[in-house]
């Protein structure tokens, strides 16, 4: 542009306009300024609206089933719990829920037409959990609360198998179909998480076919749960004292197998572990049975786990009444010989079908040990046998079992046999035959009147039993 052109533009811009006589460049400036301001205003308006709408979206409540949750429900039919005269496990649908975020509330159909099962009321337990879903331990698994809720239908009442001093036990089915017993522990106040884990892991490493296997545990907030293998044929107490009709399905051989299995489990705890484990609560309800009548000792290690000195013992007064060794009851002194005493009571209970203490009996018969000693001392061993037994045992076998039982309840703990020795005595037919042969060589004496003495083997066993009944 030449000098003349510039002078021309300058002159034109400086001319007054009809708008309040303002010069043209001023008018143009006002227009441009207004346009910029308007643009900025519209821009900010747009941004504010967007932010508001985004904030608004956050206030919408989380839908019951978030789209981030992929739900897979298998309508799997588990066979109904087979005849367990005490407990019928309900059908538990297998539910596998793949969640995006833990804080989502889950709601799902149970798969069965009626049951609308919601775990929403229980998911709050797990909502704070940001840890790993599953941790694989050396020996088992660390389960999340939600996993166990899913397995037990939200810890539902229908899944309750029973309740003991330690807490409520639920039947559960894990997503892989494994049947489990979930023990929701009470009395866990003061049990630090670390301490709990150490103790549980010690129990979890114990493996024996006659001990109920601990599969894992759950620690979340105040919750402490133990997950056990599910033993599907009830407990010995139910079979001995429950309503089984006039003839018990527990034959003599089955009973002896239960005794022997229990002895093996206890011997393992006492003699094969370092440090050894004293059960402290050997009794028939802690002997679980499978379909082949194999026995599995449950609850071992729990007394220690739950700080028995402070909580468990004070509420339950050392073990269970009727099974507790006298020295333990009197002094609180505890070692594996206290378990041996309880085991002796258990043998008597299995042979006789009687509870250790039965107040419905006439005086003098209330206490199982006293009653049994009196009968055996009076040469009436056969009268101690459970009337529900389908067949009387051989006299020799009966006396052997009674002999072992009486040795186990010796008031002097040092004279009680170790569990390993108990196994030998129970298994050793040979030992008795040897003794019988020796007895046959010696002249018959005062016990010829014994009703059992028609059996040549009964004399020596009878002598031993008699000797043991002097207490
Ligand atoms: N692993 C398991 N499999 C199947 N049933 C079990 C299992 N563990 C426990 N039960 C059952 O759960 C119920 C309660 O068991 P728990 O051991 O808590 O109490 P208890 O033995 O009856 O009493 P206590 O607490 O005084 O020992 C019992 O009927 C028992 O048979």
The structural class is alpha+beta
CATH class of the domain at 234-434: Mainly Alpha
Share of helical residues: 25-40%
Ligand inventory reads: adenosine-5'-triphosphate
Number of strands: 11
Indicate the mean pLDDT.
Answer: 73
Euclidean distance between termini CA atoms: 134 Å
Number of helices, counting only DSSP H or I runs of 4 residues or more: 16
Portion of residues in beta strands equals 5-15%
Give the CATH architecture of the domain at 234-434: Orthogonal Bundle
What is the H level of CATH, i.e. the homologous superfamily of the domain at 234-434? Transferase(Phosphotransferase) domain 1
Q: Rg, please?
A: 38 Å
Shape: rod-shaped
Largest sheet: 7 strands, mixed
Strand arrangement in the largest pleated sheet: 3-4-8-9-7-6-5
Order of helices and strands: HHEEHEEHEEEHEEHHEEHHHHHHHHH
Contiguous uncertain segments of 5+ residues: 51-136, 307-317, 443-465, 467-471
Here the CATH topology of the domain at 234-434 equals Transferase(Phosphotransferase), domain 1
Topology summary:
Layout (H helix, E strand, L loop, with lengths): L2 H11 L10 H36 L10 E5 L19 E5 L25 H4 L7 E2 L4 E2 L2 H7 L8 E5 L2 E7 L5 E7 L7 H12 L9 E7 L2 E7 L6 H6 L10 H20 L15 E3 L5 E3 L4 H4 L6 H5 L9 H6 L4 H17 L15 H10 L17 H14 L10 H9 L1 H13 L16 H11 L3
Parallel strand pairs: 4-8
Antiparallel strand pairs: 1-2, 3-4, 5-6, 6-7, 7-9, 8-9, 10-11
The chain binds adenosine-5'-triphosphate.
Adenosine-5'-triphosphate binds next to strand 5 and strand 9.
